[in-house]
Amino acid sequence: MAVLDKLVTWSRVKSPWVFHMNCGGCNACDIEVIAALMPRYDIERFGILLVGSPRHADVMIGTGTVTRQIAPRFKRLYEQMPEPKFVMAVGNCAISGGVFAGCYNVLEGLDKVVPVDIYIPGCPPKPEAIIDGVAKLLAKLQGG
Amino acid sequence: MSTVKVPIGPQHPALKEPINFTIEIEGEQVVDAKVRIGYNHRGIEKACELRTYVRDIYLLERVCGICSHSHTTTFTQGVEELLDEDVPRRGLYIRTIVCELERLHSHMLWLGVAGHEIGFDTLLHYTWRDRELVMDFLEMISGNRVNYAMNTIGGVRRDISKDLIPTLKKGMDTFRERCEYYLKLCSEEPTVLERTQGVGVLPTHMARKLGAVGPTVRASAVDMDCRKDDPCAAYDEVPFEVCTWDSCDVFARVAVRILEMIQSCNMIQWMLDHLPKDEIRLKLKRRVPEGEVLSRYEAPRGELIHYIKSNGTDKPERVKVRTPTLANWPSVEYMLKGCYIADVPIIVASIDPCISCTDRVTFVDVEKEKTWVWDSNQLRRYGIEFYKKKRW
User: Fold this and answer.
1) In a 3-state reduction of DSSP, which class is residue A16?
2) Which residues contact B138 (CB under 8 A, 6 or more apart)?
3) SS3 helix, strand, coil % of chain A, rounded to 5?
4) In this structure, is residue B186 part of a structural domain?
């Protein structure tokens, strides 16, 4: 059994599939997430693949402060992900609401709706910071 | 044949933001389309009223992460008009240079997205690699890649140093070469031509009637550009041409954007050569006299309007933002009518929507009372497969 667990962890660390969700952000974090996938930074070389469906994903990258209209949908998408699942909060808005904290239509952060594993600060964080966050998440995956 | 309603969105954008479309189809063809927005509503206009003008700049920069500088440009020039002050020329020139750099990165980004939607991913990776060149320049000038924080009321916050000018000029040469390559590629490559020519046609009279703006209206052969019609910043001094194309389809929108990038490269080089020697900013008072102003600027996606009403304090009484994407939605509804399902992604992308999503599609067959769900990848793949079958 232990061997099987090891194999599963190994394959998971080798190729985590990510799913990108904009919960009402301004696009800045989103283009930086995409930039991290593009030729200059190319996180695909670590086996990370962007998928279009939460059902295929291991990691959800959430950006933006959560608006009231998107919150129930965001929760539903999180519930559709298979276990074990991880959430990365990218950008200040996703962490605490950022500049939009106090606005009437926002919930101030992803962790108000779903549990978050990794926080990446910045407005927006640079692609290097996102890659660093992914690397830390991979280390976490390896550990347990 | 009876019609079928297809809701697209709002969930999960791969590249874009949440929005919902309801598309009515008859077989392969779209007969009606409706757009529903509001998934990204954060209450920025209300938040503006609670903050001072200086803090509003920081907030308005985050309306959109792609045209961040456009929003601050429009807002600051509106406030400067209320204060009735003339901004130093050097400040205006630097503001305009950053504006044009932003246009370059935005159009390049769009070209990649358009390539992705028609299944030409090589173009996506090429353009995003070239876009990094502009991102580097923006980082050299402002210290930031996305939200540059360059504008302030009364000018700009950072100067362009003398050492940087040759690097920037050389970089613009490289970038223009790449644009010319893309223009050649897009007008010769059958993959692009087949998916863009005659698709999403918006005739000139409809473009005028529906109030389209930006590259969308210019691709319908309407010579409308805020930079020429109502020049702000340094646009009255910089020589440039308004690019139009008369085929009115998605290809025209590709061509107009590439031509605009070439113009922007020339403009940046001209401005770097003619950079005035005076100050970059003027210290202005925090309290703004009573009054109202309508400020316009040609953002990469089209005409951006800010309405600012001041009540004599250091906080605005009302700020209203009209973004170009909002002005273009009626045109999208028109363009979608009569098209194939396979063309929906590229038509929606052709206006360069700032909030958009074709990511999760539910197909409801009324006759069989059956529902199935497609995400954008499946829709995109369907589009590519459809055209493969059509050709052979």
Assistant:
1) coil
2) B98, B101, B102, B105, B144, B145, B148
3) 45, 15, 35
4) yes
Q: Which residues contact residue B281 at a Cβ distance below 8 angstroms, ignoring those fewer than 6 apart?
A: B87, B88, B91, B152, B154, B155, B156, B157
Whole-angstrom distance, CA of residue B213 vs CA of residue B382: 30
- pLDDT by position in tens, chain A (length 144): 688 888 887 777 778 888 888 887 778 888 888 888 888 888 888 888 888 778 888 888 888 888 887 888 888 888 888 888 889 999 888 898 888 888 888 888 888 889 998 999 988 898 999 888 888 888 887 775
Q: Are B339 and B347 in contact (CB under 8 A)?
A: yes
Question: What part of A 104-133 touches B (C-beta under 8 Å)?
Answer: 104-106, 123-124, 126
Interface test mutation site (partner B, options A21, A23, A31, max chain B beta carbons within 10 A): A31
Residue A138 to residue A8: CA distance in whole angstroms: 13
Beta-carbon count within 10 A of B148 CB = 22
Tell me whether A47 touches chain B (CB under 8 Å): no
Instruction: Answer yes or no: are the C-beta atoms of B264 and B175 closer than 8 Å.
Output: no
Range of the domain at B345: 4-39+340-391
Question: What confidence category does residue B173 fall into, taking pLDDT thresholds of 50, 70 and 90?
Answer: very high
B76 and B160 co-located in one domain = yes
Q: B148 in a domain, yes or no?
A: yes
Q: What distance in Å separates the CA atoms of residue B352 and residue B350, rounded to the nearest whole number? A: 5
Complex prediction ipTM: 0.86
A11-29 pLDDT, tens digit per residue, is: 777 788 888 888 877 788 8
B14 to A27: CB separation less than 8 angstroms, yes or no? no
Domain ranges within chain A, ordered by starting residue = 15-138
Alpha-carbon dihedral of residues B265, B267, B270, B271, nearest 10 degrees? -110
Per-residue confidence band for B371, with pLDDT thresholds at 50, 70 and 90: very low
What is the CATH topology of the domain spanning A15-138?
Rossmann fold (3.40.50)
Tokens matching residue A118 = 């990794």
Tokens of B264: 């922007």
pLDDT in tens, B224-267: 888 888 888 888 889 988 989 988 888 999 999 999 999 999 99
